[in-house]
Amino acid sequence: MRSKGILLLVLWGALVLTSFTGAQDFEPNVRVDDGSCAANPYFSDLTSTPEGELFCVWSDNSGGGAENVYVSKSPDGGMSWSLSFQLNDNLYSQASCPSITSDDLGNLYVVWLTGPDAAKIFSTSSRNNGDTWSGPSQVNDDGQGLFQHGEPALAFNPEVGASVSFFDCREEKPHIYFASERTTGISDDDSKTYLSPRQICRIESFPNPFNSTTKIIYRLPNLRSSSKHSLKIYDLTGRLVRTLFDGQFSVDSAGGVNQISWDSRDDGGEQVGSGLYFLKLECDKLEQTTKVVLIK
């Protein structure tokens, strides 16, 4: 009887040990930084786009006062990573504590702390899957950043865009402040005023290029429910190839993200040839056009 009790105790211990070890396994522990940016990476953050691509940001202190923020992306779930790309400019090379997020269209946003004595918080964004990034924009609005700031946190809010919280010592002691993309001026072009994502038409497609079918993701602005919108496809000559939608807003679609697929057929049901096509989204008096490439 005693031996049976000992055996049960051993089995129970093995079960507990398995539950505490097996449940903690993470794979494959792949290195993200490529070593080209310096020698002392730290403070990393991670986000995933709707299409499943991973983006990682981190700080790297190479010594001698140079400290920069880098980004790398993985198209295969973290098994491989692109070359490291520096996000901050060299005017403010003391950059650290980055945070990254993406919205429901796959656009990316990064904030970080920079400058001597942690005096500024900067942000950048990418509207093309991380291929290019906007010039850094200052988030904090207290003069030229004369006070200490720190630990910026980032999230995407569909009502106001990228949103940042951070601590700020402008009132002689630390307080937590909030700023949104709409008020910080983050944009594709520094000469343009950024509008809330709920106020504009936006359209993208995945995959692009594509072989037979592509998924089109688009956002409609917050307009009255009686407004009309259309989604049409044109070829290089400007000829209408396919009307995917042409009608009124629905309660669910206004101000929200919508999806529709194009099977590379025209309005007559015939397969179209390989080449460049234009997706045109019209919302009331607003419009947005993007390119899509069909490869067979």
Strand order of the largest sheet: 1-2-3-4
Describe the global form: globular
Low-confidence stretches: 16-21, 183-199, 251-255
Rg result: 24 Å
Work out the helicity level.
under 10%
Structural class: mainly beta
Measured by DSSP, the beta-strand proportion falls in 35-45%
Q: How many helices in DSSP terms?
A: 2
Mean pLDDT: 75
Highest-level CATH class of the largest domain: Mainly Beta
CATH topology of the largest domain: Neuraminidase
The main sheet comes to: 4 strands, antiparallel
What is the correct CATH architecture of the largest domain?
6 Propeller
How far do the termini sit from each other?
73 Å
Order of helices and strands: HEEEEEEEEEEEHEEEEEEE
Q: How many strands in all?
A: 18
List keywords for this structure.
globular; 18 strands; single chain; 4-stranded antiparallel β-sheet; Neuraminidase; 296 residues; mainly beta; Immunoglobulin-like
Put the structure in a nutshell.
The protein is mostly beta strands and 296 residues long. 8% of the residues lie in helices and 43% in strands. The chain has 2 domains: 41-195, 6 Propeller (Neuraminidase); 200-294, Macroglobulin (MG2) domain (Immunoglobulin-like, Sandwich).
Question: Can you walk through the features of this model?
Answer:
The N and C termini lie far apart (73 Å). The longest helix is centred in the first third of the chain and has 20 residues, at 2-21. The protein has helices at 2-21, 181-184; strands at 41-48, 54-63, 66-74, 85-86, 95-102, 108-114, 120-126, 137-138, 149-157, 161-168, 175-180, 202-206, 214-219, 228-234, 240-248, 257-262, 275-283, 286-294. It folds into two domains: 41-195, Neuraminidase (6 Propeller); 200-294, Macroglobulin (MG2) domain (Immunoglobulin-like), CATH 2.60.40.1930. The strands form five sheets. A four-stranded antiparallel sheet has the order 1-2-3-4, with no helix packed on it. A four-stranded antiparallel sheet has the order 5-6-7-8, with no helix packed on it. Strands 15-14-17-18 form a four-stranded antiparallel sheet, with no helix packed on it. 8% of the residues lie in helices and 43% in strands. It contains two helices and 18 strands. By secondary structure, the protein is mainly β.
